[in-house]
């Protein structure tokens, strides 16, 4: 078994930004002898359950995560501020529920160009989560590159206050980008000063180096550019699912950053209960249950509709016989609250 696991991986659910398909990802992880596989898509958990079940089918531990977008205030929707990336990984079922909550809020309340969160929300829903400082778009790397060491330290201290020192890791990468080398040096310095752990990732967006061009095509579609556009952004070809050997060589001067990937893997143990339906609760009048209230509304609604048709008694009776059958099925399936929400939202 290998001593390295990729903990920052984008899949097909990082729409128009990754070429990695789930089954191919599992096969590559198995090929490298990895005990686990990770999903950290941009701002969403669209593929979380499919990823979870696919990993289990390949006898791999699924590590569910998300690379979220952070704003100063997730509700403020004026101007276009610089958003910062942060990688969140699920440790347990509490963490999974908190990540679901955060991602839902980022779309429902925080969507403005991107689904956005802020530090206040992280503080409220941080239980069961591990955070990585992120790629070059992370706040700490950005401040290091701008040579604003004091602000970088304040940002680090904020994250440590939210997640705790054992749940916050400084993320280093080896991708050939000159700014990354600057960021890495600063991150290593901060890790030593604050007694924090480093972790090596590769921000994977494709499985093999040769797939880099396919990702460039996706990005052109995303940004409305063409491959021949000289003004489009060009990317390095290092963001692939590197082998453990390649990662060990890249981080030979800080081997603990490789070793820590296994330590994090051991701490991520989410077991999602499947096969049960979890419907929201609809508030009903006192003395009513969702089932009784739904039946009352359904019967009254059918009466109103049939009153306009001038039906014969036999036809009228047939409609209500069918309704009672449908109500029986809905009650058995415990769908009343779900349908009440749908009906009353129209």
Keywords:
346 residues, 12% strand, 7 strands, elongated, 13 helices, alpha/beta, single chain
Overview of this protein structure:
The chain has 346 residues and is of the alpha/beta class. Helix content is 46%, strand content 12%. It has helices at residues 22-31, 48-57, 93-108, 119-124, 139-145, 149-163, 178-194, 212-223, 244-250, 256-267, 290-307, 313-332, 336-344; strands at residues 36-42, 61-70, 84-90, 116-117, 129-132, 168-173, 197-201. Strands 1, 2, 3, 4, 5, 6 and 7 form a seven-stranded mixed sheet that branches. The longest helix has 20 residues, at 313-332. It is elongated.
Brief sketch in words of this structure:
The chain has 346 residues and is of the alpha/beta class. The protein is 46% helix and 12% strand.
The shape is elongated
Using only CA atoms, what is the Rg? 25 Å
Major sheet attributes: 7 strands, mixed
Q: What is the annotated CATH architecture of the largest domain?
A: Alpha-Beta Barrel
Q: Whole-number average pLDDT?
A: 94
Write down the CATH topology of the largest domain.
TIM Barrel
Q: Give the oligomeric state of the chains in this entry, treating copies of one chain as homo and distinct chains as hetero.
A: single chain
Strand residue percentage: 5-15%
Provide the domain count. 2
What distance separates the N and C termini? 55 Å
Task: Give the structural class.
Answer: alpha/beta
Helix content: 40-55%
DSSP, total strands? 7
Topology:
Layout: H1 22-31, E1 36-42, H2 48-57, E2 61-70, E3 84-90, H3 93-108, E4 116-117, H4 119-124, E5 129-132, H5 139-145, H6 149-163, E6 168-173, H7 178-194, E7 197-201, H8 212-223, H9 244-250, H10 256-267, H11 290-307, H12 313-332, H13 336-344
Parallel strand pairs: 1-2, 2-4, 5-6, 6-7
Antiparallel strand pairs: 2-3, 3-5
């Amino acid at each position: 078994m290998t001593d390295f696991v990729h903990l920052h991986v984008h899949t097909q659910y990082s729409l128009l930004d990754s070429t990695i398909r789930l089954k191919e990802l599992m096969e590559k992880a198995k090929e490298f002898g990895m005990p686990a596989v990770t999903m950290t898509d941009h701002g969403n958990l669209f593929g979380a359950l499919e990823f979870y079940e696919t990993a289990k089918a390949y006898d791999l531990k699924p590590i569910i995560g998300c690379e979220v977008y952070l704003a100063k205030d997730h509700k403020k929707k004026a101007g276009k501020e610089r958003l910062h990336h942060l990688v969140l990984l699920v440790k347990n079922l509490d963490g999974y529920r908190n990540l679901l909550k955060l991602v839902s809020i980022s779309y429902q309340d925080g969507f403005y160009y991107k689904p956005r969160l802020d530090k206040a929300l992280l503080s409220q829903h941080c239980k069961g989560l591990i955070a990585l400082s992120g790629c070059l778009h992370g706040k700490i790397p950005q401040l290091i590159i701008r040579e604003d060491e004091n602000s970088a330290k304040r940002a680090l201290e904020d994250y440590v206050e939210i997640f705790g020192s054992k749940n916050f890791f400084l993320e280093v990468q080896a991708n050939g980008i000159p700014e990354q080398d600057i960021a890495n040096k600063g991150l290593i310095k901060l890790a030593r000063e604050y007694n924090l752990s480093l972790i090596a990732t590769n921000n994977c967006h494709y499985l093999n180096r040769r797939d880099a061009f396919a990702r460039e095509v996706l990005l052109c579609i995303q940004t409305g550019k063409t491959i021949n556009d000289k003004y489009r952004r060009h990317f390095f070809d290092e963001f692939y699912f590197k082998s453990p050997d390649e990662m060990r060589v890249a981080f030979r001067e800080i081997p603990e950053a490789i070793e820590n990937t296994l330590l994090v893997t051991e701490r991520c143990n989410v077991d999602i209960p499947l096969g049960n339906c979890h419907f929201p609760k609809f508030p009903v009048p006192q003395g009513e249950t969702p089932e009784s209230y739904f039946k009352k509304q359904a019967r009254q609604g059918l009466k109103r509709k049939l009153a306009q048709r001038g039906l014969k008694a036999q036809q009228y009776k047939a409609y209500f016989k069918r309704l009672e059958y449908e109500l029986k099925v809905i009650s058995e399936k415990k769908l009343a609250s779900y349908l009440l929400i749908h009906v009353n939202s129209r």
